[in-house]
């Protein structure tokens, strides 16, 4: 990737910062297309002066997207939302229509390689609008840019994640945590660094073009087991309260009306299906990546939620 020009849509997000950092280390020039460039300034020191350039781009605006990919050798699309939000942007607007615009613009600009980061739960037949929109995005990218590589990660963990950090913060404020559907849903958490490595390999290796990869970690856990791991690292023992899916859907529908909801009905629908690799598609092993375990990484960022601070001792 040395001297290549790479446009990263959503480069200031959780996965994006790791991708940008890796690209900068290779010597690539990185254009970071984001809605709020000022919030992406922290990326600039990851490269030399002028190597990493955040700039405004709306994934809903064809002209804006077209400008963002001009002169690029490769494109990475990381834009995604967990719940419909401001500017009337819904799942289909971002995950399907936005992905289509990026792929079409990249193809028209003569971009050589594209990586579309989707989600392991992508399914056109799913009850969840999130999962359906991810599947629609994959289909749109394939139609516009057949050589694109699609990556489907399971729940992604790391210092800035929205899973362990959210529940750890909740555990600091409440004596109980919810086990939606009894906490039986299965996950195969994948480390953010491994996902970023997968993006880099997909961009660099021609044999990855046109392929779809399912990215899961080395271990499968239930939702309950993941909360227990979090509590073990923070030293906070909390009551885990099973909540039936039906009741959780009602709560999600109500909480989903908040500006930054803790839970939405669509997220509850997602939890009805296990989030693990199918085994029918290649994954990290085929990319030459040894998956990182949750137990290795979690202690490095859960320590700040410990009673007494990060340097306090945990009673095991």
UniProtKB/TrEMBL annotation:
State any single GO MF term.
Answer: protein-containing complex binding
InterPro entries from the xrefs? ComplexI_NDUFA9_subunit, Epimerase_deHydtase, NAD(P)-bd_dom_sf
Tell me which residues make up the NAD-dependent epimerase/dehydratase domain: 6-216
Q: What's this protein's name?
A: 3-beta hydroxysteroid dehydrogenase
Q: What is the species listed in this Swiss-Prot or TrEMBL entry?
A: Oceanibaculum pacificum
């Amino acid at each position: 990737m040395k001297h290549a020009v790479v446009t990263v849509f959503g480069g200031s997000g959780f996965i994006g910062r790791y991708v940008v950092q890796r690209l900068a280390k290779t010597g690539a020039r990185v254009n970071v297309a984001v809605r709020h460039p000022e919030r992406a300034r922290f990326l600039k020191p990851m490269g030399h002066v002028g190597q990493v350039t955040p700039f405004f781009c709306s994934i809903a605006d064809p002209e804006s997207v077209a400008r963002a990919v001009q002169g690029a050798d490769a494109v990475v699309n990381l834009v995604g939302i967990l719940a419909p939000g401001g500017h009337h942007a819904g799942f289909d607007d971002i995950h399907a229509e936005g992905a289509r615009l990026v792929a079409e613009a990249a193809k028209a600009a003569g971009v050589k390689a594209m990586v579309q980061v989707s989600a392991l739960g992508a399914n056109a037949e799913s009850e969840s609008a999130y999962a359906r929109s991810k599947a629609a995005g994959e289909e749109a990218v394939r139609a516009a840019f057949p050589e694109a590589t699609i990556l489907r990660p399971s729940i992604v963990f790391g210092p800035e994640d929205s899973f362990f950090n959210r529940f750890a913060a909740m555990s600091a404020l409440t004596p109980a945590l919810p086990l939606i559907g009894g906490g039986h849903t299965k996950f195969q958490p994948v480390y953010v660094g491994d996902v970023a490595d997968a993006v880099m390999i997909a961009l660099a290796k021609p044999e990855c073009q046109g392929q779809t990869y399912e990215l899961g970690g080395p271990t499968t856990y239930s939702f309950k087991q993941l909360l227990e791991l979090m509590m073990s690292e923070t030293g906070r023992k909390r009551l885990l309260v099973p909540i039936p899916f039906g009741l959780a859907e009602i709560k999600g529908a109500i909480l989903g009306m908040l500006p930054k909801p803790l839970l939405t009905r669509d997220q509850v629908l997602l939890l009805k299906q296990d989030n693990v690799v199918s085994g029918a598609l290649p994954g990290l092993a085929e990319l030459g990546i040894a998956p990182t375990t949750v137990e290795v990484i979690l202690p490095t960022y859960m320590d700040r939620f410990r009673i007494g601070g990060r340097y306090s001792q945990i009673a095991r």
